[in-house]
Design goal:
The protein is mostly beta strands. It has a domain at 2-70. It contains two helices and 21 strands. The strands form four sheets. The chain has a seven-stranded parallel beta sheet with strand order 4-7-10-13-16-19-21, with helices on one face. Strand 2 (25-26) and strand 3 form a beta hairpin. The chain is globular, with a radius of gyration of 17 Å.
Amino acid sequence: MLINTLRECGVQIIGVTDITSQAITSNGVKIIGNDEVIFQYPKDEIRIVNGIGSLPGDNRRLAVSQKMDRKGYEFLTVIDPTARIAKDVQIGQGSQIMAGVVLQTGIVIGKGTVVNTGSIVDHDCNIGIDSWISPGVTLCGRVTVGEHAYIGAGSTVIQDIHVADNATVGAGSTILRDVECAETVIQKSYDR
């Protein structure tokens, strides 16, 4: 997805790093080695994109972000051309806004956050740094999402709710109350 979005935005892609792959290319882009190869490029001449996905409890994405920050490399903010974004939305450096996302007025999105495919973030929401908003999520008005939070696919968070730092909302959940720091909320579905 990121490679396609970067191409649509006219970004020149030098290559992809991958610590596990034996492949030569990824989606037609040359795999140039592991993350250490990045340090061969002057930090003022390139921008990097974090293509690691996120799941609750998996800190690989955050670890790479922190490592590159310490080394002085900047992450490119990626915004898919199909996203609809109000003019006053503030998007932190290195964040990724994917295809079909709608961001309404008064939103603040922290550094390194991903708002994934088809998500809707309504007015006056605040999403903290390095959070993950999965595909098809709806955040109603004035929702606050803390740092390093994870909102699962297809979830809805109603207006004026606070999802605290490091909290996890399971896929398909409807959140009607605040979610505490590091709390996991899973809405179970039952067959009839």
